[in-house]
Every structure is written in C-alpha cells, then in structure tokens.
Amino acid sequence: MRKNSVKNTRINGEVLKVLAGIIRGEIKDPRIPEFTSVVSVEVAPDLKNCKAYISVLGDEMDELNALEGLESASGFIRNRLAKELNLRNTPDIHFHIDRSISYGVDMSKKIDDVIRQDEAKRAEGGSDD
Q1: What is the pLDDT of residue 15?
Q2: In this model, does residue 39 exceed pLDDT 80?
Q3: Beta-carbon neighbour count of residue 125 at 10 Å?
Q4: At residue 129, does pLDDT exceed 60?
C-alpha cells in the first residue's frame, strides 16, 4: 500500500475521527487540557506506526503537559482504537505538537500590524508612492 493511496487516506481519516473522540471524551488525565484537538494523522502503510499531530489551546507548558499525558495514555488509546477499528494491526501512536494554527494566527497579527502602520503613514501624509 502506497503512502498516498486511497486506502491509506481512508485509514488516516478513520483513525483521526476515532482518536479525536477518545481524547475528547474518554481520557480523564488532568494534564490534557479540554481544548486539545487532533489536527492530522499519518498511519504508516504497514499499519505499525502512527504520527498524530495535536494542537493545544494554551501556552507552551500546556502543550508539554498534554503531550506527556497523551504519551502516558497511549496504551489505553491504542486499546480503544483496536476495539473501534477493524485493522489487521493497531498502530503504535506517537504524538507530536502541531503549531501551525498558532503560527498562522501570529502571522495574521503581524500582517494586520503592518497594514495598520501603512495606513497610519498614509494618513499622516507620508506617502511612499
């Protein structure tokens, strides 16, 4: 099975959906904030390993705590995945922090700041044209 095959894409989607449900509703670890979401999942073609990219609303300490909590609950999560999904192998899950959302928000703020500065310069009469 190729990495970008239709079957692999479908498996990634199912694992993402089930994993998000498990994290949202079944894990009771206080280290995992309520606003922890699964951004994407990459299951290896041999179904042995899985990279799960998570996003946490909060600061860097919240991210590290969530990662620690998810790693400690990985056995439970893998067990629940095995019960929910009918796969030949249940993959080992490796969690990674995805900072793309916070990066996008930060870049958007910087763009807005530059636009405001440009508008302020034009309002003062200091046209660069």
Answers
A1: 94
A2: yes
A3: 6
A4: no
Per-residue model confidence as pLDDT tens digits over 56-81: 888 889 989 999 999 999 999 999 99
CB 44 within 8 A of CB 37: no
Structure letter (DSSP) for residue 91 = P
Domain that holds residue 24: 6-99
**Is residue 36 a part of any domain in this protein?**
yes
55: tokens are: 């996003």
Q: What is the CATH number of the domain that holds 59?
A: 3.30.300.20
What is the identity of the amino acid at 58? G
Contact 92, 49 (CB under 8 A): yes
Task: Spell out the residues 6+ positions from residue 85 whose beta carbon is closer than 8 angstroms to its own.
Answer: 14, 15, 18
